[in-house]
Write a structure and sequence with these properties.
The complex is a heterodimer of chains A (about 180) and B (about 160).
Chain A: H1 2-17, E1 34-36, H2 45-62, H3 67-77, H4 87-106, H5 110-120, E2 126-128, H6 131-146, H7 150-176
Parallel strand pairs in A: 1-2
Chain B: H1 2-17, H2 25-33, H3 42-54, H4 67-78, H5 87-114, H6 124-140, H7 147-162
The chains are: A mainly alpha (about 180), B mainly alpha (about 160).
């Protein structure tokens, strides 16, 4: 366990070092990351209905082999509004976005990924500390890299890594407890 | 006696897990005569010593090892990669390894941005390296579930909470 804490301390120090990156530079590389813990909140019938809707979309997507068609099915599910103040529904929506984006990348529809995730993941939007957020940031980074926007790619990857490091700390706390 | 036999069994199992074939009698005899020649081959020497320790009654001349020697041998074995079933300690070490990988990636970003000699735009090689780091970290945190299975779990847990179960 001592080694875990040594790793954590080192990581915290390094994250501290990235604090100076909080302001975008002339290169427009922006690695700012706002996060919040996943708060399940009070479950509601509307929340359950949303989760069931998302689950149905995933099941239908499983049966679609062609990446672009699969993406379209998942994107259609994203049209439904996410219940407010419901952390689990927010994660479900991010999972849909991540899978849709990965399918679009598989179909080489990179610009559509930028159009989907660019407005959804601005640096001033707080993201839940969950693997789904990192998946979306990775997909955004991949799309940006393919289209030659290296600053956006680098920023997205860096944000994903920082988010994953936060997720790691949560995991370590769970192992310790 | 029971402790000694139990320890031998443990060592034999450990060696089998590492994929080491047991040494033949003639090989053990050769090693006994050439122990000093193995000084430059620590992996071979430690493996040979483990077999000696696992068969103390067949090789009385080498049965007695100091506590320090035994500690060193166990440390050698413990530091080797385990094939499977790493358990909680393995997971902790794995988490630390991933944390260090993430830290290395963050250093890459910081160093790159602080290097005034770098061009203002990140280069292809740096973008690709960071992408690889991100993908590796994401894989390390994979829960092993597919999208649909994860959605099923989310829905099931949510429903249970809603119904107060």
């Amino acid at each position: 366990m001592r080694r875990s804490w040594i790793g954590l301390i080192g990581l915290i120090g390094l994250i501290g070092c990235t604090a100076e990156l909080d302001e975008p530079r002339a290169s427009e590389l922006d690695t700012r990351l706002e996060t919040h813990a996943v708060v399940a909140g009070q479950p509601t019938a509307a929340g359950l209905a949303y989760l069931e809707y998302a689950l149905a979309a995933h099941r239908e997507a499983d049966a679609i082999a062609e990446p672009l068609a699969r993406a379209e099915r998942l994107l259609a599910a994203l049209d439904r509004p996410v219940p407010e103040r419901d952390g689990i529904a927010e994660i479900a929506a991010l999972e849909l976005s991540a899978r849709a984006s990965e399918s679009l990348l598989a179909a080489e529809a990179d610009e559509r990924v930028l159009a989907l995730l660019g407005p959804a993941l601005p640096t001033d939007r707080s993201l839940p500390i969950d693997r789904a957020s990192a998946r979306c940031l990775l997909a955004l980074g991949d799309a940006a890299a393919r289209t030659g926007d290296h600053a956006l790619a680098m920023g997205s990857y860096a944000r994903a890594l920082e988010l994953l490091s936060l997720l790691m700390m949560v995991g370590m706390e769970e192992v310790d407890s | 006696m029971t402790d000694s036999l139990s320890q031998s069994d443990l060592i034999e199992r450990e060696l089998a897990a590492l994929g080491e074939e047991p040494l033949q009698d003639d090989e053990l005899a050769m090693l006994a005569g050439e122990a000093q020649a193995l000084d430059g081959e620590p992996a071979v020497a430690s493996t040979a010593r483990l077999f000696e320790l696992a068969q103390p009654y067949d090789h009385a001349d080498h049965a007695e090892l100091s506590e320090l020697a035994k500690q060193r041998i166990w440390r050698t074995v413990d530091s080797r990669p385990r094939p499977s079933g790493v358990g909680r300690r393995g997971r902790e070490v794995g988490l630390v390894a991933v944390v260090l990988a993430l830290a290395a990636a963050l250093v890459l970003v910081v160093v790159d941005l602080d290097d005034e000699r770098s061009p203002p735009e990140p280069r292809d090689r740096e973008v690709a390296a960071l992408a690889d780091q991100t993908r590796s970290a994401l894989r390390a945190l994979d829960d092993g579930l597919g999208d649909t299975a994860r959605a099923e779990r989310l829905t099931s847990e949510y429903q249970q909470r809603l119904e107060g179960r």
